[in-house]
Amino acid sequence: MAAAAATMVSSAGGLLAMLNESHPQLKFHALSNLISFVDQFWPEISTSVPIIESLYEDEEFGQHQRQLAALLVSKVFYYLGELNDSLSYALGAGPLFDVSEDSDYVHTLLAKAIDEYASLRSKAAESSDEAAKVDPRLEAIVERMLDKCIMDEKYQQAMGIAIECRRLDKLEEAITRSDNVHGTLAYCINVSHSYVYRREFRREVLQLLVKVYQQLPSPDYLSICQCLMFLDEPEGVANILEKLLRSENKEDALLAFQVTFDLVENEHQAFLLNVRDRLSAPKSLPSESVQPVPNDPTPAQNENPTAPEDIQMTDGSAAASTNVHEADPKEVMYAERLTKIKGILSGETSIQLTLQFLYSHNKSDLLILKTIKQSVEMRNSICHSATIYANAIMHAGTTVDTFLRDNLDWLSRATNWAKFSATAGLGVIHRGHLQQGRSLMAPYLPQGGAGGGGSPYSEGGALYALGLIHANHGEGIKQFLRDSLRSTNVEVIQHGACLGLGLAALGTADEEIYDDIKSVLYTDSAVAGEAAGISMGLLMVGTASEKASEMLAYAHETQHEKIIRGLALGIALTVYGREEEADTLIEQMTRDQDPILRYGGMYALALAYRGTANNKAIRQLLHFAVSDVSDDVRRTAVLALGFVLYSEPEQTPRIVSLLSESYNPHVRYGAALAVGISCAGTGLSEAISLLEPLTSDVVDFVRQGALIAMAMVMVQINGASDSRVGTFRRQLEKIILDKHEDTMSKMGAILASGILDAGGRNVTIRLLSKTKHDKVTAVVGLAVFSQFWYWYPLIYFVSLSFSPTAFIGLNYDLKVPRFEFLSHAKPSLFEYPKPTTVPTTTSAVKLPTAVLSTSAKAKARAKKEAEQKASAEKSSGAESLSTGPSTGKGKSSGEKDGEAMQVDNLPEKKAEPEPSFEVLINPARVVPAQEKFIKFLEDSRYVPVKLAPSGFVLLRDLRPDEPEVLSLTDAPASTASPAGGSAAGQQSSSSAMAVDDEPQPPQPFEYTS
Amino acid sequence: MDPQLTEVSQLFERFKAAFIRNDYDSCANLLSQLKVLLTKFRSLPPLFENTPNAINELLLAREIYEHAVVLSVKIEDQDAFERDFFQLKPYYTDAGSRLPPSPQEYPILGLNLLRLLVQNRIAEFHTELELLSATALENPCIKHAVELEQSFMEGAYNRVLSARQTAPHETYVYFMDLLAKTVRDEIAGCSEKAYDYLSIDDARQMLLFSFDQELLEYIKEEHPEWEVKNGFVFLQKAKESAPCKEIPSLQLINQTLSYARELERIV
């Protein structure tokens, strides 16, 4: 009987009937059979669920049978879609619920169980109340699941579940049992940053990770120190550094330097200072140095001739030290290394190197500025100062102030606040010029007490400029700024001094400075008070101190909107990065009657949850974006989304896309800036698509916002990787040249051109460090920058968010040796944008006056034509430059025009079809998109300590005996070339700059009226 | 022969002997043992494994369950009947093609239909009916049940009562008695709604009793709320207790209008 084999039951009725039999064995038989048929007959069984349930509850019934009944009911409920009931019965089924079974039922219920468990655990953790009991059966299931994952070597899965469920014990087990502990740890760090939303719990996870790391035979100090930094444990970092520094091995010292550079990149000033202060001074007593206990706090700390920072230590034991001076070579070595590391920790080393890099690689296109200058109407002061802003941003950190110098006459049209900004602009240009900052600004600074002849506006601006120069590294300048603040009662100067002080002492929470600023605030002057409010916030960044309530109280008291606004932003700054801790304050602000404080509340949300992509924060912001009555609040709420989401830039365009089509122009403006902030420097295609229509919006300020945002997104992206960049540049030019364009959007376009070519085309806007930590300075900078809606001078804060896109390799002496590496991509993808004025430059060489005499219009036409028919023009110039094919060719033509600058920095070996790789020479510009193509040569003399494609990288010298060739610092021959700049013909470069590796302070210039 | 099978067969023989003796207690006892033994056979539903003795085992099991059904009728246990019938059913439906037809099949199916009729589960009755083939419907046992149902639905209650005499199988009598009671209950329910009171004579005729005594007994047992007075049976007491509820029309209208308004606003 063939059919016999296929005999199937058509109904579960018989089995169900059997359940009602009185004999327990029959019931059991029925149950076990029903289990195997439940997938098919659950609709029939579902009507009998009550009977099965009663079997489960029947005390007389055997344990196994009851569990069987529970499993059956659970499955039926699962099919009925009642997951909660299903889960509770599955728990009743005990061991019969097999977590390793591969069925939808098990998968679904497991997911449900884990969710349930995770939410219970986190609820228990949040209420910090052990009373919230977790069903032990649930716990058992989850544990079984975890064990299974670990057994199956699915460590990532296990770690994910363990983190979700806050089971640190299991997490540790998963990590230690995995085969690749380093990989797992790295994964775990990543996960804990992107998916652990509660701050305290993240701390716990990281603490655990540090613990695990330290147990490893070969700890990964780079990662440990990153964790420790997050945990704010300078002690631990100091210990590690000291251990490495004291090591015999030179490589360990290199590693220590590398660790420090990585820490510095996160810009956590207070932390770094702490670490620095905790590094113990070298001991020179031989008896003690025998035992190399790294952190032995012996009182006999001796003179430290090479660490001049430690003045207080030196003082104490100077007398005792002299006799045991050169005791131990080890100590001498340690002392030497210590000096270096302190230099790095204070940020000076990296700032100096960055400065040199930006100066030597400056590729800013002065012709763009010239065009802007000429096309802007003389009387239009907004555009006039916008041009000054654009210049400052373009040259941020390069110390090149040629443009200002060449146009003193034009510059002098800046009066009052414009003068303030013009002076402050110098600070942006000389950003990081720590040593000479003060002497640079000296001509404009208030002359002590004499009440000098300078205008208060330029004096105030100069103080602000000092702050910008020393932003986040203000050790040396703080005192001076304080004195200036105290010695004046002119509100403009107070304004500048407050801003400067806030910048210089960013996040240090210095009580004395705070009191000084507070006294300015209490004078209740609108101009000074606004700056004071912001400054207090800058000072207290991320401290969540109770000062916030003091500020809030004053904000309620004062009548001046400006002061309230300043304070609102200041309060928001204090809760930077505090996540849940800030909730009460945020609640308080967002419920305030005063729209300005609600507006501050939006900033508080943005900053407290910066880069966390926290769902709660996003929900709240979206709610305010559509429901608040004040346009300002709505605009800010949307804008704030950009800050919350900057760690996941791909998300932002999607989330704000609807808002960008809002009928309310303020919301559209906010959406544009949100995209600009979170996608800054990414060149993300979706972001550009979203912004494109907004750049031709009907409302002028929306256009302004969209242009600025677009520039932020496109910074350092060149036409070869996204053709829309070229289009955008042309659009900017068109707007600037258009006589009938609104001032607002014109200003936006001018600023956008500045941002697009920021920092001599060598910086990008980056809010996350390479280790995915947030960069405090950068985020704060952008937050205050977004305030320029009310107060233009705040535009300069954008310079805080610039970070150089460079690979800077350093040797043991922290010098930049000559070192080659590969960029495995077509050079044209990442090269500098071509100078806008290739044809004009050529003519400029021949006829220097031609440019000046051309009217702006004719020039624009010429330029447009040039773009279209570049080849035609070129061919007439006895040099065929087909636009696309080769950089080599472009370069060689450039060479002829006198641009000798790139000669030793960029390859120009051949003019054949474009090569598929490029050899870069340390230090080199490496744009973020290029990072994945960077390869290190295998037979190179130097080997990087850490395989990082950009940033500061320590190099290990494999052939230490050979003489080193330094490529940046001590090579006057190579630095001499930038004298030409990019627009060689017009630039009367000061020869002094070329000779010294440090650019000299520029000659003071006077405003003539 | 398989020892298990032999054991079951022997036990079954003892069961049959007891059955014939009408020793129902020991029958129930033996039956329960038999059922437990049957669970050991893997060829039986729902597993239907193809063991060498499958056909024999299936046949034996079927016979046991058939007897179980009949037994349950004999001891007048409707729940047991239902249970056993459902366990028997797969032997007819799923294994029917492999086994020679059983002589008991139609009488038992008919019994089941009758049971559903008695329990007034008309929907299930028709479901079962739909599952039967045309030939099955011709079978007198089935036909009997079907006709009963028709009479019952038409309200030809006298025909229902008289059908007791034409029952095709002796086991049917039990259900026919029950059916008569169902019919009476139905009539009583209707009369309650239809009349305020009835003379005893009319009531007797209405409820199809031959003697007044039977009527009074029935009233006493089933409808103690009826009142027998002066040769009349008063039924309406029950009626008063359930006043007709007024429909809150005004409120409904208002609600509907407001919904309409809201809807308009949303669009």
SS elements, strand count of chain B:
3
Structural class of chain A: mainly alpha
Provide mean pLDDT of chain A, rounded.
78
Oligomer: heterodimer
Strand order of the largest sheet of chain B: 1-3-2
In angstroms, what is the radius of gyration of chain A?
A: 33 Å
Query: pLDDT under 50 segments of chain B (min length 5)?
Result: none
Structure description:
The complex is a heterodimer of chains A (1009) and B (267). Chain A is mainly alpha-helical and 1009 residues long. Among the domains of chain A are: 57-278, no CATH class; 368-408 and 646-804, Leucine-rich Repeat Variant (Alpha Horseshoe), CATH 1.25.10; 805-832 and 915-963, no CATH class. Chain A is 59% helix and 3% strand. Chain A contains 53 helices and nine strands. In chain A, the strands form three sheets. A four-stranded mixed β-sheet of chain A has the order 6-3-9-8, covered by helices on one side. In chain A, a hairpin with a 6-residue loop joins β8 (942-944) and β9. In chain A, α11 runs antiparallel to α12. Chain A is globular and about 110 Å long. Chain B folds into two domains: 3-195, Serine Threonine Protein Phosphatase 5, Tetratricopeptide repeat; 196-267, no CATH class. With 267 residues, chain B is mostly helical. Chain B is built from 14 helices and three strands. A three-stranded antiparallel β-sheet of chain B has the order 1-3-2. In chain B, α2 packs antiparallel against α3, α4 crosses α5 and α5 runs parallel beside α10. The longest helix of chain B has 23 residues, at 172-194. In chain B, 69% of the residues lie in helices and 3% in strands. The mean pLDDT of chain B is 81. The chains are: A mainly alpha (1009), B mainly alpha (267). Chains A and B meet through α1, α2 and α3 of A and α2 and α4 of B. Chain B: Belongs to the proteasome subunit S14 family. Chain B: Keywords: Proteasome. Chain B: Pfam families: CSN8_PSD8_EIF3K. Chain B: This is Regulatory particle non-ATPase 12A isoform 1. Chain B: One of its GO terms (cellular component) is nucleus. Chain A: Residues 1000-1009 have a biased composition (Pro residues).
